[in-house]
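Subject: sequence -> structure tokens, single chain

Hey, anyone have a minute? Need the predicted structure for the following. Not urgent.
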Amino acid sequence: MKYLSFCLVLVITLVLSAGSVKTGLPSFGYYPGEMIPDIVLKDAEGNSRNLHDYKGKKVVVNFWATYHAQSRANNVQLYNYLRKNKSDIEFVSVAFDENKNVVERTLMLDKLENISQFYEIRGTSSEVYRGLKLNEGFRSYLIDENGVIIAMNVTPENLKTIL
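Reply:
Had a minute. Here:
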């Protein structure tokens, strides 16, 4: 009888714990197959541009910050790859730094002065940062002509296989 009670408790525990396992995607950001939100971007002169203005073109959007080495390196690598290999794809760079001068100096050092650069001068407190949940890490997205995300966290290597 002791073993029967033990087995019954064990089975009930397994059944209850199996029902609580999460099988969905983590709860941050946007994913391939979803529409990218229509983000309002500001350029160096303070002019606004909507991300949906790029509809009709494939776009790589890279979110980065000067203080985050990996995202900065990814910005340089993606731009250089697209400039050399995929002239039909737009590159949009969005920096989350509160000091625009730091971003401009970094772009000059990285030899990226002629890119479509936008600024989120509110940094990590901006709506875009919170909306995309970039506190989990800066990301890049490949977006198709209709505004649908094809891939995220793209690198030059996986762009070669995707495109």
